[in-house]
Amino acid sequence: MDLTLLNDAARATHLVGLALGFGVAILADLCAARSLFRPLDDRDFDTLHQYHRTVALGLALFWASGLILLWLRTGFEPANFSPKLMAKLGVVSLLTVNAILIGRIGLPTMRAWYGFRYGSLPLAHRLRLAALAGMSGAGWISALALGVFSAMKTFEWEVLSEIIGVIYFVGLGGALLTAFLAPLLNLAMDRMRSA
Predict the structure, then answer these.
(1) How does pLDDT run across 154-194, given as a tens digit for each residue?
(2) Beta-carbon contacts of residue 61 (< 8 Å; ≥ 6 apart)
(3) What is the chain written as a DSSP string?
(4) 20, 23, 31, 95 - which has most CB atoms within 10 Å?
């Protein structure tokens, strides 16, 4: 088998996995964010489940093609792993764990509070959902950055971990802030409706 062809096919599949995962994760986040303004309905939940399956497919493509690329470039020899490669493996591992948690915790929590806006949920539930959303957004942005910016190939681990750490800090921080402020949004919307 021609290894160049295998490499090109794996790279193309890797891009498809990234596009599916990143694009659909953004759509899922926007769909779930509707609960800030109104309760989600059955159609929203069906859409979220379909999005979750599509993101899982994207991650499966990402892993399968990534392992082929890893084999072609390193022969699975840890001494050949660059800091960027280690960062990619860490980010995709976190995305995978987070996707599993969204399916097992996030979606069931949202379904259990059917008919309620996000700001009406108890704080513990809002924080849990916010952490999952923040980790997802930060993970996909990190994966995109690692795949797109060729300058990152030369960065040392300290620089890469700092950049990725900032992305996760901003993503999680913004999501958790939303969890705390969501009840205030409920009050403002209720006042506008009654006025």
Answers:
(1) 999 999 999 999 999 999 999 999 999 999 999 999 899 88
(2) 13, 14, 16, 17, 20
(3) --HHHHHHHHHHHHHHHHHHHHHHHHHHHHHHHGGGTS---HHHHHHHHHHHHHHHHHHHHHHHHHHHHHHHHHTT-GGG--HHHHHHHHHHHHHHHHHHHIIIIIHHHHHHTTT--GGGS-HHHHHHHHHHHHHHHHHHHHHHHHHH-GGGGG--HHHHHHHHHHHHHHHHHHHHHHHHHHHHHHHHHHHHHH-
(4) 95
